[in-house]
Amino acid sequence: MTSIAARVAAATWQDVRYAARVLLKDRGFTATAVATLAVCIAVNTLIFAVVYGVVLRPLPFDNADRLVYLYNSYPNAGAPRASTGVPDYFDRRAAMPALDESAIYRRQGVTLTGVDGAERLIALRTTPSLAHVINAQPAQGRLFTGADGEVGQDRVTVIGQAYWTQQLGGDPAVIGRQVGINGEPHEIIGVLPQGFTFIWNDIDLWLPAAFTPEQRGDDARHSNNWQMIGRLAPGATLEQTQAQLDAINGRNHERFPALRQILEDAGFASFVTMLQDELVRDVKPMLLLLWGGVLLVLLLGCVNIATLVLVRSSRRARELATRQAIGAGLWRLRRQTMTESLLLSTLGGLAGLALGAWSLRAAAPALRLDELPRGFEVGVGPVSVAVVMALSVVVGVVLGLIPTAGSSRLDASRALRDDSRSGTAARRTILLRKALATAQMALAFVLLVGAGLLFTSFREILRVDTGFDPEGVMTAAVSLPPASYADDDALRTMTDRVLDGIRALPAVEVAGAVTVLPMSGDSSDSVIIPEGYDRPAGESLISPNVSIVSETYFDAMRIGLVSGRFFDSRDRAGSLPVAIIDERLAARFWPGRDPLGRRMYLPDSAETALTPGPDTLYVTVVGVVRNVQLAPPGLGPEPVGAYYFPLRQQPSRVFVIAARTSADPGTLVAPMRGVLRDLDPELPLFGVDSMTARLDGALAARRVPMMLSVGFGVVALFLAAIGVYGVLAYGVAERRREIGIRMALGGTTADVFRHVLGDGLRIVVAGLVLGAGGAYVAARAMASLLFGVQPTDPAVAGAVAAILACVALVAIALPARRAAKVNPAAVLNS
To answer: For 102-111, 215-224, 667-676, which range has the lowest pLDDT when averaged over its residues?
Structure first.
């Protein structure tokens, strides 16, 4: 057995050495094939690493395949995915046996104070049950218990490993230490393990969620501001879980008949889905589309290499036929050519793997991988290496079958006489080369149409009027802790001092404050109803976006006034409650009428949603402003409108400053920090970014896929052009003698040019026709990813066809011109 293995190893090593000598001898072919394959493998490495890290890689928790996500939905009210409310969580814990554990959580910013001043951290506020859902264990101390989730006993925290080592120096005596969080003392009770993450990797600490009876009561229903996950009980299914969820909602409908019709009109329902599917819901279609694109690029590159292999095989026909004639068996020839092909594809795969890994590291900031779900886990790991090298091996096997595909029928004497050009096998080879070139044109057309649709979609997004001017605006957030600013008067006073201090900076033209900044990724919405509104039967209440703004916010953002006025000094505490609405809301509530002076009210219960009560808050509309694009177009539900309250009447603990300057916005950061430090050293300025950067980041989800697809399209265009050129150029080289004879017998230069040109055009036309079908299927598949353009847009398909045809025409014209310049005398005398 050992001797057999030794002989096999020796034979394999001999084949590898011979293959290396052959490839080194044919350096031009080897370099071209390896480079082509390396580029194609590199883009596959990059995209697969992202797809695996974000979409395919299992969550790093025990029983990750049993973790589910639950949410409420009000599609007719403009909130198709509205997370979960506190009463829902307690209902489901008590009446869903399909879940053996569940938890709610939310990500929030907190201010940590200490001897070095204040810093802003990211915290996960969660019920103690989360640790049981994901089976988390502490590295030190303990995690939350049920007692920590009771009001008054929740002043404890569990810190992350990174914060413990970087900020606290890895102090082993950290358990029991007191830290100030939002101005309140908290005891550190535990440290999370090294490498532990829960969805995000920037969570510095965990805080327990504790709820008052009012927060758990029925009046808090449908106030959805928590995320809910659960773990399926052994043997439970999604279908069973959904049925139990529906049953809970059905019972609540019976308990609250006044609310039932409103919820039915809003399309209310609750859903359960796998947690991993929920995390990648927004990015999965685009990432899979890009993966499909790079696989097409790889296929196109392989077709290109296959064409080179065919050409090379024609040149090696004499060698193969001779070796067969002197006794080499078909299996021996195939083994050797397969070894050459596998060695070639392995070299290309390794080079592509290295290039792809380097490209991933270099392109990570531009691709904004950190903004993808679990983007911090993306990397070229063992799975990516295995998949990429497997692809390389498959390519090598397929290419290795080409040289000896017809070896059993090779005639040695014919090969030695070099007459095979006129034989049947040669004709088949020529047809196969043309078929491969046609396939390249078809694949390039599919990729370019996809790129063209994404490019056109992104162009349409850029044309959308955002309703504000981002140029020259610096933004930064402030959070006022309740321990230092206990009531509304304290909040108003400090907010005024902060804004006055920033307005006094020499470079600041105007500054304002807002609770929800456009394009920030944050959102807030709440039901509001116009007074006397006669809601048609079946029409849903709506939940427009709501923001609280200072008097000068609209000026700072240059949001245009349509009618009425902006907020001013009249809109203060104790005065008439007022609001400003946008054009969408005005058109919905008062179509064709003047909304100024009309009133709206905020329902505080199911009963007041239908009939206002004596304590219902009414607000008077004093202005209408232009529509503002709060989120990137095409991402999320269509906005139903927005309304604004004055900051003096409804002060907020957290607000974002928007300061406009004619200078570089970056120069405002240090002075703004100085203003806040002078007013209160324990108030950090966080979330600092220019408005143009925020807008750029918000559009990254559209821009990056568009740029990648355009890049793939350009590569495909280049490969297709090279493929057509190579087929025709080699055909001209093979037929120089034939062309010389034709011209000697009276053929003209124009005839030869037209003949070669016609061959090329037939390839192009056939490729475009075949590609049109593939492009149609691909375009329909990506319809949900487009904005402002139809998948079957004839302008995009026409433009792509024209570009592809023009590039191909240049590639065709070069060999056609060379054929027309053949000298009959020189050819016939050679």
So the answer is: 215-224
Residues 113 and 236 in one domain: yes
Question: 194 and 119 in one domain?
Answer: yes
Residue type, 54: V
706 shares its domain with 654: no
Question: How many domains, in total, are found in the chain?
Answer: 4
Residue at 735 is within a domain:
yes
CA–CA separation, 367 and 356 (whole Å): 14
Closest CA to 313 of 353, 340, 295, 345: 340
266-319 pLDDT, tens digit per residue, is 889 999 999 999 988 888 888 888 888 888 888 888 888 887 777 666 655 565
Per the structure, the complete domain to which residue 736 belongs is given by 425-462+699-830
Q: For the residues of 242-265, what is the DSSP string, one character each?
A: HHHHHHHHHHHHHH-HHHHHHHHH
Tens digit of each residue's pLDDT (9 = 90 or more) over 806-827: 888 888 887 777 766 666 665 5
Residue ending a domain, among 654, 682, 710, is 682
- Contact between residue 547 and residue 642 where contact means Cβ atoms under 8 Å apart: yes
Residue 304 has phi, psi (to 5 degrees) of -60, -45
Q: Exposed/middle/buried for 195, CB within 10 Å: 0-12, 13-18, 19+?
A: exposed
Pick from 564, 533, 721: which is nearest to 644 by CA? 564
The verdict on residue 392 lying in a domain is yes
Please write the tens of the pLDDT for every residue from 178-207.
Answer: 988 888 899 999 999 988 888 888 899 999
Planar angle of CA 121, 122, 124, nearest 5 degrees: 135
Task: Output the CA–CA distances (angstroms, integers) from residue 502 to 319, 488, 499, 685, 686, in the order listed.
Answer: 82, 21, 5, 12, 15
In a domain, 691, yes or no: no
Phi-psi region of 537 (alpha: psi -120 to 50; beta: other; left: phi over 0): beta
* pLDDT tens digits, 459-496: 888 888 899 999 999 999 999 988 888 899 999 999 99
- pLDDT tens per residue across span 123-142: 999 999 999 999 999 999 99
Same-domain check for residues 326 and 308: yes
Please name which of 449, 554, 523, 473 lies closest in space to residue 770, comparing C-alpha atoms: 449
550 with 652, same domain?
A: yes
Separation between Cα atoms, residue 578 and residue 113, nearest integer Å:
37
CB < 8 Å & 24+ apart, contacts of 456-460: 456/788, 456/789, 456/793, 456/795, 456/796, 457/634, 457/702, 457/706, 457/785, 457/786, 457/787, 457/788, 457/789, 458/699, 458/702, 458/703, 458/706, 460/633, 460/787, 460/788, 460/789
Same domain, 640 and 721: no
Give the residue carrying structure tokens 């603990």.
653
Q: Which residues of 318-339 are buried (b: 16+ CB within 10 A; e: fewer)?
A: bebbebbeeeeeeeebbbbbbb
User: Would 434 be classed as within a structural domain?
Assistant: yes
